Amino acid sequence: MQSYMSGRKTAMINDRQSIIVHLPNWLGDTVLATPFLHTLRDVFPSSRITLVGSPWISDILSHFPGIDEILTLEERGKYISTLLLVRLLRERRPDSGFLLTNSFRTALAFYAGNVRERIGYAMNFRRLLLTRPIAQTPDIMQSSMVEYYLNLLSPFTDLSRHRRVLRLYPDESERREARRLLLENGWDGEKRLVGVNPFAFQWETKRWLPERFADVTRLLTEKHGVRCVFVSVARDRPFFEKVKQMCRCDMIDLVGKVSLKILPAVMGHYSLFVTNDSGLMHVAAAVNIPIVAIFGSTDWRRTAPCSDRATLIRKPQDHPPCMSPRCRRTFQCMEEVTVDDVLAAAEKYL
Fold this sequence. Notes:
The chain is of the alpha/beta class and about 350 residues long. The protein has 15 helices and 12 strands.
């Protein structure tokens, strides 16, 4: 057995009978981590792999191949949740743990939970808590989040040998449930469906102008005879109602009606998805549907959809993306994106 020395790749694979992975906290990041999960199983084919994460995230991975168990963490405040995670880890006694989160708190929990080998990025004062701290180099910080997560496996394998597989796996019962939901809410089972996503959780600066989303929805409906579908969580309903009033056309309203468990199956019915930079954009990429994605305040190099069927619309500015949920400038990055820009990109897929 080789040991890990002088930065060489390790072959201590047989030592890792059990591996635990702390998932990211957000939907889009979790989907962007799916190539990491595929590669993890390739690198450790005989290990037991357990995922741990928030209940609203783990559902979307319920049929993911190569995963032995998915555990959910109760949301009871940071302090209590950390103690519960420590207890879980001490009970499970995993040999290795990968942190796909960047927080000090989760690294501390893995340390206190006696996880023998702890792999994560050396940031937020975590270096001493990790047995394999991974440096955040300038190159990795300018790469896609897919590469960011995969890089955690760089001590164990040559990453160039592995395909980047971004995919979700709805089962047949979820496909049937998705079809039933669409039919019950106005789909005739024949017209092409176009997903429209004017939402962006907590980030106003990720949202293209709602009146322009409404115009695109109406024009796609009138010119191409499609049915546009809106999906989001219930808290987005007030915003959706404003967009709906501006659309002046029929649509399928699934806001607050779709669980994460059947979300990939619902989106798998779409012929196209028009969206802001959001978690749903990455779900669309993972079910391999065409995407028109509008980028403003966020860095497209980091969070662009991992898909060869995606068109990005962005207007370069005289400053880097602000990466701020509140605009401190004039919102030009979104104001300059026109209805014609988005419509022309969408029509290439219809």
